[in-house]
Amino acid sequence: MTDIRDWIASHAHRSPESVAQIDTASGRRFTYAQMQERVSRIAGHLRQIENVAVGEVVAVLGPNSSDVFDVDFACGRIGAIFLPLNTRLAPPEVAFQLTDAKPKVLMVGPGFESLAAAAIAEADLPIRLIAYAGGEGELDLEAIMEAGPALYSAEVRSPSDGWTLLYSSGTTGRPKGVLHSHSGVTMQAIGNCVPLGLSPRSCGLTFLPLFHVTGLNIFGHAMFYAGGTQITMDRFDPMEVLAALADSSYGVSHFAGVPTIFEMIAALPGFADADLSSVEGAFVGGAPSTKALLETYAKKGMPLIQGYGLTETGPTLTVLDPEDAVSKLGSAGKAIMHVDLRIVDESLNDVQPGEPGEILARGPSVIGTYFKRPEQQATSFADGWLRTGDVGRIDDDGFLFVMDRKKDMYISGGENVYPAEIEDCIAKVPGVAQVAVIGIADEKWGEVGAACVVKRPDAVLTEADILSRCETQIARYKIPKVVQFFDQLPLGGSGKVLKTELRKQFQ
Questions:
Q1: Where residue 166 sits, what CATH number does that domain have?
Q2: pLDDT mean over 88-97
């Protein structure tokens, strides 16, 4: 890729009256011509009034909204880096990301003013606040639309310039910034458009959080690249999602979710009679899908499309076509175009076909380094290949099977949870001598956290002491559902906790 193309400006020129966005919470609809005007006004304000320069960060903290995409593309237009913050984090966690990224501007959505204020106070940074709407006299996006400068086309820059910054929790307990460039975001959109069948006639429904790579890129960015219609819901509600899928005035053709979400929708009383015939592509990822789930949706005439990827890869690396879902049950599919995969041993040598090893990935949508993390280069990348840390195998037909996720990570309701963050929090509780957190099976969420704690001698410590600390320091979905006290934890020869033994005890 030799230059940067402005997707919104291009579609506004070619098909100005096509519907670009529908915001279900507010009921607003915008054509590509209207979205172009909104993006232009925000871009002009950020550049000329807020003096946001190329490479500086603009953050957003709030619920899903069409406004978020407006800010996203305005950042892309001026060369700023767009950072959607996780609204489920605790103030100290948001403060860490603010301190690390140092955004010049923070857009705040309704209901998140107190979280923003607490995080900014802890980060102690001069950050300009702009409300989505109705900021009690403060500047908001709608005021920007009515007055001020406009920037109608992208400035000439390098495709390697950063566009989106997402934080992926690290195995060391320190979140890592994943910065995707303009070319990376574009190639991921192209890679999703082809196997998932996107076109200007497509209509995508997004209810996954836009601070997640799946919500932002599947089908968010991909739908805008294709010139289709993007419907944004402020949150996931099973009944509202089912109603939207069955609404003929929307004509939803594509949406994405994790297995838990598909199970919740299928369990609704109205699922059996709902007309979902408009849906062409229902993408499921984040965790393995059961045969029963695949069969449930196949009977509805909505075969699920499975895939595999990471925040660092944009996310899509592989896609499993619906016709292969049963014959290749358990597979994540084949690599999409512009993605290369390798399976290697501990010495990074390729293994024989069918043998397990670490999954390595390479391609234009895969990052080449972490944001401000030079110390991660040697352990996370090898000669241009991203080391996923996941164990898998590729069969003789080229299908990838992911056999084990990152060593300690577990997935709860589609959320990646890294125990190191939780262990660091619990270790600060007075009276805790040792702690290990593992993921254990849960019927509703797939997995939940279990904290295995060893008390200090003579310490008086309860489950409530552990949980109360977690409630103020980490996101709710990370808080362990089980706290169990041990006299000692099983250790290996090197002194590391044997989490495999702990998992066996809970099984």
A1: 3.40.50.12780
A2: 94
Q: How far apart are CA 192 and CA 347, in angstroms?
A: 32
Please say if the pLDDT value at position 74 is more than 90. yes
Domain boundary residue, one of 354, 384, 407:
407
Determine the Cα–Cα distance for residues 37 and 120; give it in Å rounded to an integer. Answer: 31
Tell me, yes or no, whether 370 and 473 share the same domain. no
Residues in Cβ contact with 349 at an 8 Å cutoff, skipping those fewer than 6 apart: none
Distance of CA 94 to the CA centre of its chain: 16
Stretch among 247-251, 257-261, 334-338 having the lowest mean pLDDT: 257-261
Structurally, the chain folds into a number of domains equal to: 3
Do both 389 and 417 map to the same domain?
Answer: no
Tell whether 126 is covered by a domain: yes
- Domain extent at residue 80: 7-186+201-212
Residue 426 φ/ψ, nearest 5 degrees = -70, -35
426/395 same-domain check: no
Q: For residues 264 and 281, state if they share a domain.
A: yes
Q: Which amino acid is at 243?
A: A
CA distances from 98 to 161, 332, 473 (A): 20, 35, 16
- The whole-number pLDDT of residue 62 equals 95
Same domain for 14 and 144?
Answer: yes
Please write the tens of the pLDDT for every residue from 17-47: 999 999 999 999 999 999 999 999 999 999 9
Considering the entire predicted model, what is its pTM? 0.89
- Domain assignment of residue 230, yes or no: no
The answer to whether residues 268 and 381 belong to one domain is: yes
DSSP 456: P
Mean pLDDT of the chain: 92
Closest to 468 measured CA to CA, from 438, 425, 410: 425
Whether 376 shows a pLDDT value over 90: the answer reads: no
How does DSSP classify residue 290? Answer: P
pLDDT, average across residues 335-350: 95
Where are any strands of DSSP class E within 156-296? 162-168, 176-181, 203-206, 229-232, 254-257, 281-284
The angle formed by the CA atoms of residues 120, 124 and 126, to the nearest 5 degrees, is: 80
